[in-house]
Amino acid sequence: MYEEHLPRVYGFFAFRLRPGPDAEDLTATTFERAMRNVHRYDPARAGLATWLLAIAQNALIDHYRYVGRRPESTGDGVDLDALPHLVRDHPVLGITPELEDALAGLDERERQVIALRFGGELRAKEIAGLTGLSEANVHQILSRSLRRLRQAMPDR
Which domain holds residue 50? Predict the structure, then answer.
């Protein structure tokens, strides 16, 4: 489970927090929680990747509570500048400093959907199930977010 899903879980955190120690710690926390609760996993309800990313989302919420920077449910973005600044000289998983800056311009919901799609490698249907959004809304958010990212990174 760990070897197969490590890139997805870490990718999710890397897109949400930036690559670095916090993403690594939360990835470890996710797998620890999964191992403690593996008896609760029901393959009839969701695939293993979806289940792990649901645990990852909860770990991220706990992290925001702990550092006092929990994103508001109004859709406002997290103040990424207030979070600990992580090393940006070593791109991980293709997340360059330019992409990090562009992602910072997205609101919290857009970052979440982008992180689940590209970091967690989930399909729109799986993202909809995790977030409570409709599949059409997930596609719309992805489309708008990718357009905004392209505008923020015109050289790409």
Answer: 2-152
